[in-house]
Amino acid sequence: MTQAAEHTILTDREGPAAEVINPHGMAPICLVCEHASAFIPASLTDLGLAPEHRHSHAALDIGGRDLALALSHALDAPLVAARISRLVYDCNRPPDARDAIPSRSEVIDVPGNSDLSETDRAARVSEVYEPFRSLLATTLDGFKAPPVMMTLHTFTPTWFGVPRNVELGLLHDVDDSLASTMLDAAPAGVDVRLNAPYDATDGVTHTLREHANPRGLLNVMIEVRNDLVSDKTGVARFADILGDMLTRAMARQVSS
Ligand SMILES: [Zn+2]
Hints:
By secondary structure, this protein is of the alpha/beta class. It contains 7 helices and 11 strands. The protein is 34% helix and 17% strand. The chain binds zinc ion. The site of zinc ion has 3 residues, from loops.
């Protein structure tokens, strides 16, 4: 059976589920953006979402892809990005996670994700998660020397009605060395915090666990408040801030 024949969600024209941008970038850095896209394949009929929710923070990390692209360009680093909405499958979750295919996200119901059969779930995994996972693994294996891995995310300024003051979160899994040295390199005037607004106990470090930890790669997960990267000026500002923090932290890692 050909691969195309196995597809029930994504057509050839809509795929692939993931892409690598700047694949020949020279920096020893692999950037990752799991929530880069709001795209929902036509076969899923918008998952039954209202139009105002299809491009909301529930569907993607607003500004995340633009920020990742700016950093990929500034650092000359390869970027692996998902091309499918996290409401179809959240590539930063393992298949057995309850919220990998969420039927509810914050205050939004996702009708197209309720009462899924095992076959439906398996198709999401095989057509969205597995290609992303495989492309990231291949990209990491293609580096001449072990790269640093930085995953890029954005978060909504208000969560269940509660405002969030943190502007930039540096999240880590078992190895806090890169997040901690980046925190030391944070500029004045930006509210930068370790493990905010989430931490590893929320299950958000799956990509780090799956790809960076087994390879022994220095790694960090970035969370930027999305109102700060909602336009070109904000994206450029945070690409500068993060590029500088990462570069200085990597220099310290090498010299320590
Ligand atoms: Zn995210």
